[in-house]
């Protein structure tokens, strides 16, 4: 796992976006895994800037969202269908038909989950999976004690996750109780993982993910099992990392061929 500590939340977005940009340049029809929530917004802003200035072309890029609420109509402003359309598809100039979100409004939810897994497989798997982390250590909506062998399925949102996400809804009671989420095994299948976290509220989860034991009590710790995982955090989110100085030293001494500092355009 590579841990990159940068001074500001904006810089987190710029560095992580550089990783995604490299994948899209290498493969114009790359398959991205996209997260919702506040953490990846700076990545999408930076990618949109590059798309607007003609440095990157997302017209052939495919994408799979991590998760979706159950029970919200697809056109509800907080459904991840809507959020992904407004935050990712439109600003980056992606083709809506190439962007997939689990169907949380399906009559047969287990079937929708199976279909989603099949669609990811049929696309050849995810090249770069963008991730955030919940304060309780969840990735996707894989709440603590999720199986490391899990695939896309229905999950009950932890009460703390519902409370964290209440800011997006008119009332806390409006936050759905259930979701569909890619499983931890689905996420680990991606060829590359890029997780971003900003702010003190994430510091504990980041420390458990990076330096704690691999445990389903902290689903993010699954990243320790992945051969190509990068964690980009600001100083506040890094504040509880025991080996922070070592991560800084390592990043400062990266060989040229491993550099991706976003200064390439
Ligand atoms: C959302 C997702 C979640 C979020 C996490 C952090 O698609 O996968 O794991 O990344 O809940 O949310 P924010 O970024 O809003 O703090």
Walk me through the structure.
This protein is of the alpha/beta class. It has a single domain, classed as 3-Layer(aba) Sandwich (Rossmann fold), CATH 3.40.50.1360. Helix content is 33%, strand content 16%. The chain is built from eight helices and ten strands. It has helices spanning 9-26, 41-52, 80-92, 109-122, 159-165, 184-189, 203-211, 244-252; strands spanning 2-6, 31-34, 62-65, 67-69, 99-100, 128-131, 153-156, 178-181, 192-197, 229-234. The strands form two sheets. The protein has a seven-stranded parallel beta sheet with strand order 1-10-9-6-2-3-5, sandwiched between helices. Strands 4-8-7 form a three-stranded antiparallel beta sheet. α7 links the parallel β9 and β10 (229-234). α1 (9-26) crosses α2 and α2 runs parallel beside α3. The longest helix is centred in the first third of the chain and has 18 residues, at 9-26. The protein is globular, with a radius of gyration of 17 Å. The mean pLDDT is 95. Fructose -6-phosphate (F6R) is lined by residues 35-39, 66-67, 132-134, 138-140.
């Amino acid at each position: 796992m590579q841990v990159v500590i940068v001074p500001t939340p904006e810089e987190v977005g710029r560095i992580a976006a550089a990783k995604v940009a490299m994948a899209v340049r290498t493969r114009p029809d790359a398959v991205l895994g996209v997260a919702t929530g506040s953490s990846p917004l700076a990545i999408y802003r930076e990618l949109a800037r590059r798309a607007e200035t003609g440095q990157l072309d997302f017209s052939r890029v495919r994408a799979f969202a991590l998760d979706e609420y159950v029970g919200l109509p697809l056109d509800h402003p907080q459904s991840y269908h809507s959020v992904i359309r407004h935050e990712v598809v439109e600003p980056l100039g992606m083709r809506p038909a190439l962007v997939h979100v689990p169907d949380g409004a399906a009559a047969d939810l287990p079937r929708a989950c199976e279909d989603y897994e099949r669609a990811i497989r049929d696309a050849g798997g995810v090249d770069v999976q963008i991730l955030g982390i919940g304060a309780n250590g969840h990735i996707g909506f894989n709440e603590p004690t999720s199986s490391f062998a899990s695939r896309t399925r229905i999950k009950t949102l932890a009460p703390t996750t519902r409370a964290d996400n209440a800011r997006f809804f008119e009332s806390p009671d409006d936050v759905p109780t259930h979701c569909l989420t890619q499983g931890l095994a689905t996420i680990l299948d991606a060829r590359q993982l890029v997780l971003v976290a900003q702010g003190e509220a994430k510091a504990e989860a980041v420390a458990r993910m990076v330096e704690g034991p691999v445990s389903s009590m902290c689903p993010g710790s699954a990243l320790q099992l992945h051969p190509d995982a990068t964690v980009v955090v600001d100083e506040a989110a890094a504040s509880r990392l025991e080996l922070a100085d070592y991560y800084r030293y390592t990043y400062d001494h990266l060989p040229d061929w491993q550099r991706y500092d976003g200064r390439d355009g």
